Amino acid sequence: xxxxxxxxxxxxxxxxxxxxxxxxxxxxxxxxxxxxxxxxxxxxxxxxxxxxxxxxxxxxxxxxxxxxxxxxxxxxxxxxxxxxxxxxxxxxxxxxxxxxxxxxxxxxxxxxxxxxxxxxxxxxxxxxxxxxxxxxxxxxxxxxxxxxxxxxxxxxxxxxxxxxxxxxxxxxxxxxxxxxxxxxxxxxxxxxxxxxxxxxxxxxxxxxxxx
Length: 211
What we know:
GO terms for molecular function: metal ion binding; protein serine/threonine phosphatase activity. The chain is α/β, with parallel strands linked by helices and 211 residues long. 44% of the residues lie in helices and 12% in strands.
């Protein structure tokens, strides 16, 4: 188990990078030539290490998109998050993270990530949960890969007829701490406006699975 002081260091450095990113990861394959797209890891560290063994570690010339659901269910969610955040620190131009529905502090309370933090870091569990909650809120919403011939959208959840990419690309994503709970209206003390409700539903489509 990595000492907590290094955990704090990784999280703070990665969060400072995530805060500078737009809502969409833009990837141009004319510069990178190829990219690996990795689905739900769900705390399975052995799977991630196997992927790296087959395809090589992330590097400037070996880029990856990790398409959400890094945590919960598996026993090594913290280790996966720390590896992915370290990869962003080392290679911010070739490692891309999309937010999934399990990068949600309400979901992690039910499916294991918070319990893992409690067990591995009992002396600083509250601080780490709060830090991860903030990191999750700063993860980009989706990725767009320019192949030179077409653009490929990579999103964890899905899209619907109500999607407005201009609105998605310009919204304040860190307002969405959890997709289970409605965000607070920008108009203090009032319910969400019609536009705020539409924005929330679009973010929900992108991050969670459609039912």
